[in-house]
Amino acid sequence: MVRYEDVVAARETIAGRVFRTPLIRNEKLDEAAGAEVWLKLENLQRTNAFKIRGGTNRLAALSPAERERGIVAASTGSHAKGMALAARELGIPATIVMPRAAPQVKVDAVRADGANVLIEGDHYDDACAYAKQLAESQGLPQISSFDDPLIIAGQGSLACEILEDQPEIDTFVAPIGGGGLASGLLVAGKHLKPGLRVFGVEAEGAPSMTESLAAGRPLELPQINTVADGIAVRRPGTLNFEIVQKLIDGTVLVSENEIAAAFRFCLEKVKILAEPAAAAAVAAVLTRKLPATCRRLAVIVTGGNVDREVMLRLLGV
């Protein structure tokens, strides 16, 4: 299990390598949500996504021999970008396996940071299976995008920043795929503020954590279908599920139309670019699917990497 002390250590490790992103409030969002809503803008993070927090923490822990040999990772994009940048700065060779569903803008960005990109499978889980085989055959560490204690601890740094900036916040709202972000928020947030509530948001077409919680064990969905590639995961992480099952206050499902509407709201009303996974979290607030007793909410805008074709589709162009 990941402890709060691990999050504290991660903050020290990643200090100076990641941004402390803004926490903003928007009147139009408050009005639409019927609550006080703060947005944690990880779309302004390095690589334009939160994943570099956990990725940097994980790569910094590699031994000199592991750094020399290199690493393998699988991702739809944001973890890949974080891995590629952190690996380049630490001088670590990186091979990133990405599925065909990964937005081209993310694939191009990963290659631009010097990583070797392999395209395998239709979805994240397919790419992850290939990455595992590749890592085993070459004797390299495979860096999970969520199912790793050091990754979780790095993502938990977000909770610390939010509660330092706005101690009165009573609820965290975050998109949930494999569960790395949610796990980090739960470990750090519940330690710092025991009465804090944390909700995960999934797309209706990829409810892997919701279904797993209902079953009492991690389940692998036979198929998924959502525009929100960042949370398009068929099976949650094992460690992530243990933490989420123990600590989370609930999950919320949003439709593809609700994700698209939230994407447009963020762009037109709040003037921020939120990738579909981040828009899913905003959608849960806009549609008022959270308990009415949640009055001061922090929504994690997890990233702003959106493929042009996906953006046009979400805008209805």
Describe this structure as you would to a colleague.
There is one protein chain. This protein has 317 residues and is an alpha/beta fold. It folds into two domains: 4-49 and 150-315, Rossmann fold, CATH 3.40.50.1100; 52-146, Rossmann fold (3-Layer(aba) Sandwich). Helices cover 48% and strands 15% of the residues. The chain contains 15 helices and ten strands. It has helices at 4-14, 27-33, 51-60, 64-69, 78-90, 104-112, 124-138, 149-155, 157-165, 180-192, 208-215, 238-247, 256-270, 276-286, 308-315, and strands spanning 23-25, 36-41, 71-74, 94-98, 116-119, 142-143, 171-175, 197-203, 250-254, 296-301. A six-stranded mixed β-sheet has the order 1-2-10-7-8-9, sandwiched between helices. Helix 6 links the parallel strand 4 and strand 5. Helix 1 (4-14) packs across helix 3, helix 1 (4-14) packs across helix 8 and helix 5 runs parallel beside helix 6. The protein is globular. The model has no long low-confidence stretch (mean pLDDT 94).
Based on the model shown, name its key terms.
317 residues, alpha/beta, Rossmann fold, six-stranded mixed β-sheet, four-stranded parallel β-sheet, 15 helices, 48% helix, 15% strand, globular
Distance between the termini: 46 Å
Q: Provide the structure class.
A: alpha/beta
* Named CATH topology of the largest domain: Rossmann fold
The total strand number stands at 10
Tell me the name of the CATH class of the largest domain.
Alpha Beta
Percent helix range: 40-55%
Total discrete domains: 2
What strand order characterises the main sheet? 1-2-10-7-8-9
CATH architecture of the largest domain: 3-Layer(aba) Sandwich
Q: Roughly what fraction of the amino acids lie in strands?
A: 5-15%
Spans where pLDDT lies below 50 across 5 or more residues:
none
Average pLDDT confidence is: 94
Describe the sheet with the most strands.
Answer: 6 strands, mixed
Topology as a string of helices (H) and strands (E): HEHEHHEHEHEHEHHEHEHHEHHEH
Radius of gyration: 18 Å
From the spread of the alpha carbons, the general shape counts as globular
Number of helices: 15
